[in-house]
TrEMBL record:
InterPro entries per record: Glyco_trans_2-like, Glycosyltransferase_2, Nucleotide-diphossugar_trans
Name of this protein: Glycosyltransferase family 2 protein
Keyword annotations of the record: Cell membrane, Glycosyltransferase, Lipopolysaccharide biosynthesis, Membrane, Transferase, Transmembrane, Transmembrane helix
A GO BP entry: lipopolysaccharide biosynthetic process
Residue ranges of the TM segments: 238-260, 272-297
Keyword Cell division annotated: no
GO cellular component: plasma membrane
Glycosyltransferase 2-like domain residues: 2-171
Gene Ontology MF, one: glycosyltransferase activity
Amino acid sequence: MVVPVYNEEKSLPDLLERIVTSLEGAKLSYLKGAKLRYEIICVDDGSTKDGSAKWLKDKALTHPNLKAVLLRRNYGQTAAMAAGFDEARGDVIVTLDADLQNPPEEIPRLLEELNKGYDLVSGWRKNRKDAALTRLLPSKIANWLIGKLTGVKLHDYGCSLKAYRKELIAHIRLYGELHRFLPALAYIEGARIAELPVKHSKRKHGVSKYGLGRTFRVVMDLFTVFFMKKFLTRPMHVFGILGIVSMTSGVLMGGYLSFLKLFFNESLGDRPLLILAVLLVLTGVQLFCFGLLGELLMRTYHESQGRPIYRVRHVIPSKGSQT
Ligand code: UDP
Ligand code: MG
């Protein structure tokens, strides 16, 4: 289990208890009566407003299955999850939020589904309990866009409750808001993906760490994922098409202007709008490509340096693994 934690002190005791109960009680058909072996890795993403880090630290010292990973500062949910992935030793990794919006009771169902022959099972919050206008609507649009651009059709990319085969994520390097694109990134790597409707609850304690700004960051990261898929193998297919479209429109506009000049002897100097349009199209394309190149360079930079996207302050192994 990998759980990113950022100022969630009030939810933690209940969370831990419910995960343990759910896993201890899981009767998984493929285990044939054997006991499920697991570790719960809670990654404290630099909580400052409450005692999440201390609670996890103290608890791990006495708990047989809880491992606490404390990051040096707040790096964001994706980085916290990546830290958890790097620590995980199991064959399967299940992620969920610390705020109990994802019911731990659903974990065994995810595992059963995964064992039907998938590499990734993604939760689908069919009855999502979040604000309609600020959360559900942007998510709907984002999910539609992601599906269109990446070719992976899921209803709910943002659901944190997911199960993965470990070897699948071992090769995927995360940064930014990319954790929600794990299905798309995994799909590029040839993963078999399933979606499973799961329950969703209202947040009981604390507040959401996100606002509308995240949707913007997610959409921006989406373009990177999309272009990674296309670009890494065939850069010219992407830039070529963009270039052709922009050139064609430029030529058409130029042709139209020449036509006016040649046959009607109109002066072109008083058509600022048309010229403005040409300029806007061209600069737009340029800026887009520059942004993209920058984005890709950044990726190369991260990958070539092997620079971690998080730094760990302290790892407290579970009591069980110490003895
Ligand atoms: N989280 C994190 N680092 C952050 C922001 C959030 O580790 O910088 C964790 C948070 O504690 C929670 C999960 O990511 O376990 C999802 O966050 P939240 O519940 O605020 O998101 P929402 O459910 O509102 O989308
Ligand atoms: Mg939440």
